[in-house]
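Catalogue entry: protein

Sequence with per-residue C-alpha coordinates
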Amino acid sequence: MDVAAARGVDLSRHRSRVVTHDDVAAADLIVVMDEVQRWAVRALFGGHRREVLVLGDLDPEPIETREIEDPVERPGQVFERTYSRIDRCVCQLVDALGAAAKPVPAGTVAPLARREVTT
Protein backbone atom coordinates (compact mmCIF):
# COMPACT_ATOMS: atom_id res chain seq x y z
CA MET A 1 0.00 0.00 0.00
CA ASP A 2 2.97 2.31 0.53
CA VAL A 3 3.88 2.20 -3.17
CA ALA A 4 0.31 3.07 -4.19
CA ALA A 5 0.08 5.80 -1.54
CA ALA A 6 3.30 7.36 -2.81
CA ARG A 7 1.54 7.65 -6.19
CA GLY A 8 -1.59 9.18 -4.66
CA VAL A 9 -3.69 6.01 -4.73
CA ASP A 10 -5.64 5.04 -1.59
CA LEU A 11 -6.03 1.25 -1.35
CA SER A 12 -7.25 1.21 2.25
CA ARG A 13 -10.75 0.16 1.17
CA HIS A 14 -9.59 -2.31 -1.49
CA ARG A 15 -10.49 -5.95 -0.80
CA SER A 16 -10.04 -8.94 -3.04
CA ARG A 17 -13.01 -11.22 -3.64
CA VAL A 18 -13.91 -14.29 -5.64
CA VAL A 19 -15.07 -13.63 -9.20
CA THR A 20 -18.62 -14.85 -9.85
CA HIS A 21 -20.58 -15.90 -12.93
CA ASP A 22 -22.52 -12.63 -12.64
CA ASP A 23 -19.25 -10.63 -12.70
CA VAL A 24 -18.13 -12.40 -15.87
CA ALA A 25 -21.54 -12.13 -17.53
CA ALA A 26 -21.64 -8.38 -16.87
CA ALA A 27 -18.11 -7.73 -18.14
CA ASP A 28 -17.21 -6.53 -21.62
CA LEU A 29 -13.52 -7.11 -20.93
CA ILE A 30 -11.80 -9.19 -18.27
CA VAL A 31 -8.21 -8.27 -17.45
CA VAL A 32 -5.97 -10.83 -15.74
CA MET A 33 -2.35 -10.86 -14.62
CA ASP A 34 -1.17 -14.10 -16.24
CA GLU A 35 -2.06 -16.88 -18.64
CA VAL A 36 -3.11 -19.23 -15.82
CA GLN A 37 -5.77 -16.74 -14.72
CA ARG A 38 -6.85 -16.30 -18.35
CA TRP A 39 -7.24 -20.04 -18.77
CA ALA A 40 -9.12 -20.35 -15.45
CA VAL A 41 -11.61 -17.61 -16.36
CA ARG A 42 -12.31 -19.24 -19.70
CA ALA A 43 -12.53 -22.75 -18.24
CA LEU A 44 -14.71 -21.82 -15.27
CA PHE A 45 -16.93 -19.19 -16.85
CA GLY A 46 -17.06 -19.94 -20.54
CA GLY A 47 -14.71 -17.07 -21.31
CA HIS A 48 -14.87 -17.86 -25.02
CA ARG A 49 -17.86 -15.52 -25.03
CA ARG A 50 -15.87 -12.69 -23.48
CA GLU A 51 -12.50 -11.21 -24.18
CA VAL A 52 -9.94 -12.12 -21.50
CA LEU A 53 -6.81 -9.98 -21.74
CA VAL A 54 -3.45 -10.63 -20.09
CA LEU A 55 -2.55 -7.10 -18.99
CA GLY A 56 1.19 -7.62 -19.53
CA ASP A 57 0.54 -7.99 -23.27
CA LEU A 58 0.02 -4.23 -23.40
CA ASP A 59 3.37 -3.27 -21.87
CA PRO A 60 4.97 -0.71 -24.21
CA GLU A 61 8.45 -1.63 -22.93
CA PRO A 62 10.35 -4.75 -24.01
CA ILE A 63 9.18 -7.64 -21.86
CA GLU A 64 10.50 -11.04 -20.87
CA THR A 65 7.13 -12.44 -19.83
CA ARG A 66 3.44 -11.69 -20.29
CA GLU A 67 2.87 -12.33 -16.58
CA ILE A 68 2.48 -9.45 -14.16
CA GLU A 69 4.63 -10.38 -11.18
CA ASP A 70 2.75 -10.93 -7.91
CA PRO A 71 4.43 -8.76 -5.25
CA VAL A 72 2.66 -10.26 -2.22
CA GLU A 73 5.10 -11.02 0.59
CA ARG A 74 8.00 -9.72 -1.51
CA PRO A 75 10.37 -6.78 -0.94
CA GLY A 76 9.28 -3.20 -1.65
CA GLN A 77 11.20 -3.00 -4.93
CA VAL A 78 9.02 -5.83 -6.30
CA PHE A 79 5.91 -3.80 -5.42
CA GLU A 80 7.42 -0.77 -7.16
CA ARG A 81 8.35 -2.77 -10.28
CA THR A 82 4.91 -4.42 -10.40
CA TYR A 83 3.03 -1.18 -9.82
CA SER A 84 5.06 0.56 -12.53
CA ARG A 85 4.34 -2.20 -15.00
CA ILE A 86 0.62 -2.23 -14.20
CA ASP A 87 0.55 1.55 -14.56
CA ARG A 88 2.21 1.39 -18.01
CA CYS A 89 -0.13 -1.35 -19.17
CA VAL A 90 -3.29 0.33 -17.88
CA CYS A 91 -2.29 3.58 -19.65
CA GLN A 92 -1.97 1.57 -22.88
CA LEU A 93 -5.35 -0.06 -22.24
CA VAL A 94 -7.03 3.30 -21.67
CA ASP A 95 -5.47 4.64 -24.88
CA ALA A 96 -6.58 1.55 -26.81
CA LEU A 97 -10.12 1.72 -25.48
CA GLY A 98 -10.28 5.41 -26.35
CA ALA A 99 -9.05 4.63 -29.85
CA ALA A 100 -11.57 1.79 -30.12
CA ALA A 101 -14.37 4.25 -29.43
CA LYS A 102 -13.34 6.25 -32.51
CA PRO A 103 -13.83 5.01 -36.08
CA VAL A 104 -10.75 3.10 -37.27
CA PRO A 105 -9.76 3.82 -40.88
CA ALA A 106 -9.75 0.79 -43.17
CA GLY A 107 -6.39 -0.96 -43.38
CA THR A 108 -5.15 0.09 -39.92
CA VAL A 109 -4.23 -2.23 -37.06
CA ALA A 110 -6.91 -3.02 -34.47
CA PRO A 111 -6.27 -1.08 -31.23
CA LEU A 112 -5.99 -4.14 -28.97
CA ALA A 113 -3.69 -6.23 -31.14
CA ARG A 114 -1.67 -8.68 -29.04
CA ARG A 115 2.11 -8.27 -28.73
CA GLU A 116 4.52 -11.13 -28.94
CA VAL A 117 6.77 -11.69 -25.93
CA THR A 118 10.43 -11.01 -26.71
CA THR A 119 12.96 -13.58 -25.58
